Amino acid sequence: MRYFPLTDSDREEMRKCLGIKDTRELFSDIPQDKAYYPLDHIPPAVPEDRLLETFKEIAKKNKFSEYLSFLGGGAYRHFIPEVVNHLSGKGEFVTPYTPYQPEVSQGSLQAMFEYQTMMAMLTGMDVSNASLYDGGTAAAEAALLVARKARKKNTILIARNLHPEYIEIIETYLRDLVELKIQYVDFERTTGTVNLEDLNKKVCDDCAGLLFQSPNFFGGVEDSQKISDILHGKDALSVQVVAEAMSLPFLKPAGQMGVDIVVGEAQSFGLPLGYGGPYLGFMTAKKDFVRQMPGRIVGETLDVEGKRGYVLTLSTREQHIKREKATSNICSNEAWCALRAGMYLATMGKTGLLKIAKSNHLNAAYFVKEIKKFPHVTVKYPKNFFNEIVLEINNMTVDDFTAKLEAKGILLGVPLKWFHKDYEKAVLVNFTEVHKKKDIDRLINAIGELK
Amino acid sequence: MNKLPELIFNESKEGKIGYSFSETEFPDDIISLDDQYRRDGQNLEDFPQLSEVEIVRHYTNLSHLNHSVDSGFYPLGSCTMKYNPKINEAIAGWEEFSAHPYAPLKLVQGNLEIMNTLEKWLKDVTGMAGFTLTPAAGAHGEFTGIKIIRAHLAAKGNPRKIILIPDSAHGTNPASAHFSGYEVKEIPSNENGILDVASLEAHLNEDVAALMMTNPNTLGVFERNIVEISQALHKNGSLLYMDGANMNAFMGIVKPGDLGVDVLHLNLHKTFSTPHGGGGPGSGPVGVTEELLPHLPVPVISKQGDLYHAAYFNKGLGRVKNFYGNFLIMVRALVYLMSIGKENLRKVAEDAVLNANYIRKNLENDLDLPYKFKSLHEVVFSDKGLNVKTLDIAKRLLDFGIHPFTVYFPLIVHGAMMIEPTETESKETLDIFIRTMKTILKEAAEDPAKLQNAPYSTPVRRLDEVLAARQLALKWEKKQE
Predict the structure, then answer these.
(1) Total count of domains within chain A
(2) B333 burial class (0-12, 13-18, 19+ CB within 10 angstroms)?
(3) N or C: which end of chain A has fewer CB within 10 A?
(4) pLDDT per position as a tens digit, A174-200
(5) Which domain holds residue A435?
């Protein structure tokens, strides 16, 4: 077996050194009646050539890549420059552990510090952590952070137009913490955005803060400033969730709209769809929150000779020091994904990011403009979106409609009835820079044929 | 070589371009966004602008500053820094696997097959009745597992209040229990570093929901009373959670399910060879007994006839992570298990344990060994009797191109040095390590200052962590001109 460097003579020599005859003697503490059981399912070792064949066969059973896809809803296909794949694939980046020995981890640490800087710039915030698992768990961590920061206030407000999976995750995270209560803030059925009247009504003296998403789950841009003002009026915190990080370069930064904490999913920055993971949870915040933040944070310091260097810092927040009093139980995070995001952002650079983000929006805007000519479909919220819109099907069921498009090689989008009873007729359709005009025209024509 | 690259922001220059992508085909006048929401480059004034070759050199130079499994020995205890096979990486990178998580299930049957097969094989290794693959890391698995226990007990009428955790446990255990709504009660391990039934029983009462036990524990010692411990817990209506971070020690040798474990998590990024990526992504599948199956989180994957199916909503615990978890990590783990095969599976554990014991044997006359029970996959020494500290030895190892062991953990050992070589190290490497340790200990005896000032040959020398925490600099700031 090529992964075992010990030879039989090595093993023999080592056993002799240990004064044992059989390696099994090392396992004598294990109940012997239960040890060395038979394996039922795992097959015999497969050599590398046949391994490739086996996985090619499995890969062939996936047909997704043959389709023109407009699926989004928290997972987005964006262009990834080859340098990102090449550089992030280096063994020196792939195979270290968490940088516990900073003297031999400056590569990862500096890259994380640069990532933190870029995420802070993009969100207009003071500080960023080094990553969390994904958008949904980052939102849950933000809810916990808000509760810690607000101390005696125990109600967490959640906007109903947050990504439904994020809501489920927050509910799972908070369910057993009996002192915390979740209250939902509704959204306007006419615009898809947070119902400010309902927010005004719900925000109370016991409210620690609100988690809202912008662009929201329907793709619409929220008035983060107005929302934050309402919250701050009651001394509650404003947390903006971002499920599509590509919107950040295009939209006014949360930090300039009164938001206190930004969390979300940064898969769009250099990570493939990957059937849902690994992705990249991020969290940035105003600096007052840094000591309550979950996860690793990299800081700059000096070595004994006065040379600049980077270390994991503020570790007194973390589980290995504080144990049950830590700000989170997180240990392993998504460091390599954050590394890729940093590489992606640096490669696209200021110019590239602004252009790509805008082209996402323009592609969606073109679709919205053109599709108006067909009365059998309606764009439900045709204003102030980023790259995702809700399309209502007026002449047949969503299942029939999407099946017919699928037969033409097109995946229209995410059926919203999966998540909301009121959206029986609606599909969430996403456009990114990977779609060319001809792709969008193909979609428009195919929809036109389903009159 | 090993020159510290400038921060990328200082290497940037207005007008440089590092990417190439088609221009948009649409004019700005179709923009459908009110001005008040638009960004005109605010806060992005100093965003990097570099050419492609400069990006490549920046990160290539950074990569040279890292120690990694690919570059050298990495005996970081409890972290199982085994070799990460390249074929795993290649296959996980195939575009066919990179589908959208909301793709119709019939278009992603290959992916569902991968998850279903991995689940089956993990059951084989552990003897558990079912798995969720969604947790993103070990700690996330602990959190999920404890919540499963809570849901199960709550369904039976009383979720109870307390999780017992031995004093040798990893910090994530108490943190995960706390975030699952439990009080944590620490229980002492005995003079041999393991838990005995009597001391457990002294802590058992009707409030105890479960015991979280790492096995082999963080001393690298098998918790030999585990079967009796499980029986005592079950008699009390409590459950046994096993932290499987150290599963590499007995993978294929014994199934935790046969030892009375109710819930466990595995670390695919430890035992199953997927890389640590400088801190993640990991994957922390959770296995449970038959009785707990209804409480697994979504999605739950099954085979119905010839087709694979995913129950995606409204089941069991609910959702703990987006989509299916870290799918591409699961692909790597499956490739690994297929490469290793049933005949080699227990050789993984045997070689890992043989390597650890070889190190123990060759250093036990040089270093204090506080707990004498048999070591499995790792050995823990202490700095007792030395005139330098554990940290000094660790830092000096860096000068020899060896990544140090885990330092100061477990907490029950003063100045702990926790050494885990794994099965993917050669006898030659172990001999070099042993010789190096002896050299360093000799240096310590003759010239302790040499160790206290180490390292000397690393890209940076000892870093001031106190300064980092006091004068927080958490991002690049433009120099005032």
Answers:
(1) 2
(2) buried
(3) C
(4) 999 989 999 999 999 999 999 999 999
(5) 65-80+349-448
Size of interface A-B (CB pairs under 8 A): 691
Q: Do B62 and A106 touch (CB under 8 A)?
A: yes
User: Tell me, what's the pLDDT at A322?
Assistant: 86
Distance from CA of A48 to the nearest CA of B (A): 7
In the predicted structure, residue A201 carries a pLDDT above the cut 70: yes
pLDDT of residue B2: 55
Which backbone phi and psi does B402 adopt, to 5 degrees?
-115, 135
Q: Is the pLDDT of residue B457 over 70?
A: yes
Phi and psi angles of residue A449, each rounded to the nearest 5 degrees, phi first? -75, -10
Distance CA A410, CA A394 (A): 19
Closest CB to B39: pick one of A249, A313, A347.
Answer: A249
In angstroms, the CA B233 to CA B241 distance is 11
Structure tokens at A260: 């206190």
> pLDDT tens across A146-160, in order?
999 988 899 999 999
- The domain locations on chain B are 88-340, 344-468
Burial of residue A399 (CB within 10 Å: 0-12, 13-18, 19+) is exposed
| Chain segment A370-417, per-residue pLDDT in tens | 999 999 999 999 999 999 999 999 999 999 999 999 999 999 999 999
Is the pLDDT at B1 greater than 60? The verdict is no
If one counts every other C-beta atom within 10 angstroms of the C-beta of residue A53, the result is 9
Q: Read off the DSSP letter of residue B463.
A: B
Residue A310 has pLDDT above 70, yes or no: yes
Please say if the pLDDT value at position B201 is more than 70.
yes
Q: What are the pLDDT digits (tens) for A42-57?
A: 999 999 999 999 999 9
Q: How far apart are CA B445 and CA B438, in angstroms?
A: 11
Domain shared by A245 and A384, yes or no: no
Q: Per-residue confidence at B481, pLDDT binned at 50, 70, 90? A: low
From the CA of A151, how many Å to the nearest CA of chain B?
A: 16
Average pLDDT, chain B: 96
Last residue of a domain, one of A345, A376, A393: A345
> Which residues from chain B sit within 8 angstroms of residue A283, using beta carbons?
none
Q: Which residue of B has its CA nearest to A414?
A: B102
Query: Do A75 and A180 lie in a common domain?
Result: no
Please tell me the pTM assigned to this model.
Answer: 0.98
Whether residue B44 and residue A105 make contact (CB cut-off 8 A), yes or no, is no
Q: Find out if CATH 3.40.640.10 is the number for domain B88-340.
A: yes
Are B263 and B213 a contacting pair, CB within 8 Å? no
Q: Is residue A136 a contact partner of residue A163, using CB atoms and an 8 Å limit?
A: yes
Considering only CB atoms, which chain B residues are within 8 Å of A240? none
- Judge contact between B316 and B295, C-beta under 8 A: yes
Look at residues A327, A345, A363 and tell me which one is the last residue of a structural domain: A345
Tell me if A24 is assigned to some domain.
no
Q: What are phi and psi of B157, to 5 degrees?
A: 120, -25
Residues A444 and A353 in one domain: yes
B288 dihedral zone (left: phi>0; alpha: psi -120 to 50; beta):
beta
Q: How far is it, in rounded angstroms, from Cα A236 to Cα A155?
A: 10
Question: Is the separation of the CB atoms in B122 and A38 below 8 Å?
Answer: no
| A50: in domain | no
Q: Which CATH number do you get for residue A423?
A: 3.90.1150.10
Which among A79, A301, A326 is the nearest to B175, CB-wise?
A326
Which of B9, B38, B39 to mutate to probe the A interface, most A CBs <10 Å? B39
Q: Are residues A199 and A332 in the same domain?
A: yes
Q: B69 CA to chain A: closest CA distance, Å?
A: 5
Question: What is B344-468's CATH number?
Answer: 3.90.1150.10
Contacts of B455 (CB under 8 A, 6+ apart): A103, B395, B396, B398, B399, B461, B462
